[in-house]
Amino acid sequence: MEYYPKTMFEFEQNFATEKSCGEYLYQLRWPEGFICPRCSHKEAWKTDRGQLHCRQCKYRVSVTAGTIFQDTHLPLRVWFKAIWQVVGQKNGISALGLKRVLGLKSYQTTWLMMHKLRKAMVRPGRDQLVDPVQVDETYIGGPRPGKRGRGAAGKTLVLVAVEDRDGRPGRIRLHKVKSATGASLIPAVKQSVQPKSEIRTDGWEGYNGLSSCGYTRTIIRETAEVGKNLLPLANHVTSLLKRWLIGTHQGKPSPSYLDYYLDEFVFRFNRRTSRSRGLLFYRLAQQAVNVGPLIGSEIAGGKR
Ligand SMILES: [Zn+2]
Q1: Which of 15-24, 83-92, 245-254 has the highest mean pLDDT?
Q2: Is pTM, for the whole model, over 0.85?
Q3: What is the rounded average pLDDT of the residues 117-133?
Q4: End-to-end CA distance of the chain
Q5: Domain that holds residue 232
């Protein structure tokens, strides 16, 4: 299929009713036709309430069941508008801004909606970064600047990994980590970067274990002092991230929710050259029906 609206006008024309939004989600969820989530049978009746009724096991499923839209009280039209807003602005939109644009009454409802959309920003089974990759860490939040334990009170440490494309940034990954020790850093690198890749870091001992995990480590910066910019791509991403957290989200998302903000930043950064708002809309809507619903503990911020 891969239909997506090219303009605001097309968007409004195509997604004016609950029915048209539901049909779009149906196409995204079952592009090859219906497959029963319970028995994998391929034939279903459509009920009057818009549910699918499996012909074999008689299971009834709505197009939103098992997706981030599950149990929502908001019309799909509102969700579609929210997605359109979220992908339409280069730096994204805060929950407060979205509440205004959509004319919603409750900040909490809008916030939860944003939270669910952030979950959908992580593509299931996404690819790992390809080498060479610059890796560094940075502290987010807290009153004082500092690095690796110095003045780190109240801050959250984030691992930053950036593909080095001849001196220009490729794709990125960000991971909240417990500390700057190898026990925290190495697993985060393994999640982010393809095995056997070349990884460029400074001389920090926390990365010493990379070689024994099969990576080729290149030390770019011999000292762990602040100030000298020898990992320019990682530093660039770090400063954009900090600016974005301050500019769009007023600075300090609580550490328990930080993962979700990092996911949103990665989604935006990795698609920064895509000029088509419609295509981004399509991608996010597609991922929204392919990741499961946000469960209680995730809402409270306990993600990984
Ligand atoms: Zn079935």
Answers
A1: 15-24
A2: yes
A3: 88
A4: 34
A5: 133-244
